[in-house]
Amino acid sequence: MSGERSALGAALGAALLARLGLVLYGVYQDGAMRVRYTDVDYRVFTDAARLVAEGRSPYRRATYRYTPLLAWLLTPNVYLAEAFGKLLFVVGDLAAAVIAYQALRQRGAGARQACGCCATAWLLNPLPMAVSSRGNAEALVALLVLATLYFVEVGSIGKAAACYGLAVHVKIYPLTYALPVALHLQSRRCSREGAINAGCDRKARPTFAGYLWQLCVKMLNCDTLFFGAVAGSVLAALTIVFYHLYGWEFLEHAYLYHLTRRDIRHNFSPYFYMLYLTAESKWSFFLGLAAFLPQLLLLLVASVVFYRDLVFCCFLHTAIFVSFNKVCTSQYFVWYICLLPLVMPNVKMSWRRGLLLLFLWFVGQGLWLAPAYFLEFRGYNTFLLVWLAGLFFLFINSFILSQIISHYQKEVRVAKDLKQQ
Amino acid sequence: QAVLIPDAVDVEAPEYLATDLLLLLYMEPDPRCSSCFSAALPVHGRYHRPAEDSEEVLVVLKSPEVLACCCDNRLRTECWKPAEVEAPCSGTVDSPCRWYSVTHKPTYEELILHIPVGLRQHSSLVCALTLLTTVLCSSLILAALCKHGQFS
Prior knowledge:
The complex is a heterodimer.
Chain A: H1 2-32, H2 40-53, H3 68-73, H4 76-79, H5 84-106, H6 111-123, H7 126-133, H8 138-154, H9 157-170, H10 178-193, H11 208-219, H12 222-246, H13 248-260, H14 272-277, H15 284-306, H16 310-323, H17 333-337, H18 340-343, H19 351-378, H20 383-406, H21 414-420
Chain B: E1 2-5, E2 22-25, E3 28-29, E4 37-38, E5 56-61, E6 67-69, E7 85-88, E8 96-101, E9 111-116, H1 123-148
Antiparallel strand pairs in B: 1-2, 3-4, 5-9, 6-8, 7-8
């Protein structure tokens, strides 16, 4: 028992040192070089926190499109030190790892396997390290999503729903988890109560449509309704309080902007060039809709097919959502990387295949970053190359996802883990 | 120090939707030479509309207007004239000072920014190939989901 704790403690310690090192390096680079290490968003958070400390609305700060809670949390940036926020996000990272570890143990993974998954996929992964040390707040959403999934695993529906409501308030994307959570809760209820309950009748269904209809009916059960009520209340309460404090600006910037956002500037999304060229044409609306349909279809099918394993389903959801979204930046990858430690024990593939897929993922990003650098910092017209790299990156992401799906196995092999030790 | 008027700028807007703004840059005396002032300003171009046939748009950066302040005790002949511009004395917007335009000769020619833009003639190809790729990629994932999914 103490061995497990010390292994996790060592991983946490190493992760903390690495992140603190990056924060210190960031302070140096910001002062010494022209290209700042700290993300522009962190400047926005700090300015908004300053406004809140003066008793004004954080939405006076242009491009502040987050929850007021974040500005409130970062007011020590103004009173203590500007690096406070980054340290808070680093702590968020580590807390997320601890929750992921607990969730893995709850799902039946051995201590060593759980620690290994958390360490490789999250704690020692350079991407979340860079994201938090640069001052992006993704660690907080990751923490809330992991807490939601942990509480569902443990069976505390109320706590899960509260975390979920808060997560949706902070970032809109967890809203897509509503369907898998609803389907999952009704399946757990059925497996708990056995075949006695008529609602769980598993007679042969003649059609796919009939199967879908049965699912819809089964979703309306106690657990799902309780989850919906608590999450809805938390979200409504936060919305009402902040609307009362900050008015229409809050709704516009914190919620509506993200739902209607269309960024024509270059980003990882495969749609960016199409949206840029057709921004002012009459086809703009229909193309936007056409871009939304594959995302919607994939999310629906993934929910219906994998809801029994909620964690895997949410991982697929987020990965599909990010890859097929109209806007995609590298911060978004953290949204599904935080679920990777929980998914890893169930995806049985060889080390070589895993490393090859990881390598392909980085190659895809590199092929995009190179022409994007020349476009943004050197002024070369590399639009076609950036666009083609975006399409290729989508293909790589789709290939990796299909490989993960085809190597997924439901049970976590605890015996195999013991043998490997 | 710099003052932007208006102070709320939409930094994400493309060029055709962006509003004009005025930037007041307060220059510091250059320590390396007396009666010299220096300032450095990074410039980042906005996205422009896609063009019909040229790969880039030319934006001319004209010389800035140089203003001198009559807020210290040194008398200059310009200070006797009525004030031309009323602008903040320094970074704070509270107290206005009177500023006078100083005639100067730019030592460099006009700077021209070459901003890359998308080409409209690519529209059909880009739309078709993008949508085709997304359909193919979604089919790849759909096939995996339907083949390995849990339907029981």
